[in-house]
Amino acid sequence: MSIKVVPALSDNFIYLIELKNGTICIDPGDAKPVLEALQTDLIAILNTHHHADHTDGNQELKNRFNCPLIAPDDERIQDVDQFAKEGIPVIIDELIFDVLFVPGHTKSHIAYYSEKLKAVFTGDSLFTCGCGRIFEGTPEEMFNSLQKIAKLPADTLVYGGHDYTKKNIEFALSLEPENKELKRCGDAPWSIDQEKKRNPFLRTSDPSILNALDMEKSKTVEVFAVLRQLKNDFL
Ligand code: ZN
Ligand code: FE
Questions:
Q1: pLDDT tens digits for 83-135?
Q2: From ligand 2's centre to the CA of 48, what distance in Å?
Q3: Could you list which residues have their CB under 5 Å from ion ligand 1?
Q4: Nearest-ligand number for the alpha carbon of 12
Q5: Closest listed ligand to the CA of 161
Q6: What is the predicted pLDDT for the residue at 184?
């Protein structure tokens, strides 16, 4: 069992999970790089949310391999065979995924967690050292979604949908230039434990972030909203 990272489009990550009996593909924004990277047949396609850069390869891959498409219940995703819902595990071959409902980036966004793989596939909710933009939710929803992911076991690796890590680390260092964990951080993926020590969006209760924003007396969700706005404006 292994996880292969397939870079796609300008800065997307598609993930291939190679099992004994075939491969699972997560968020194929483009079919071509998937077809080039595949060593076996696809046995399932999983989507985290409806955006084109995560779903545009669905149809071509489905047609080619005749495999099921599993996705959140959202009319903006075509031809779904099985809706993924929190509380109902998605079982594919030897793997079981827990579905986490993580709205904020979009209103039906989900993440897939596998205890066996020690991995969570977060789409555009939690990124390495950052988080997705809030398009269809409130800061509070996005905050709660990230907190839900942060409660997974500390050694779970976080596989996000985009390669924004360099920029995210720059932003984090602009807030916490003395954060030793950030200064000596390695390549993605990072564990939940590492995210909590480095990712400003999971550190909204930490004195060092509160101090940097001069928001010691503010509510955690307000701190989160300010952080997200600062990141939107960060060049
Ligand atoms: Zn997206
Ligand atoms: Fe995206």
A1: 999 999 999 999 999 999 999 999 999 999 999 999 999 999 999 999 999 99
A2: 10
A3: 51, 124
A4: 2
A5: 2
A6: 87
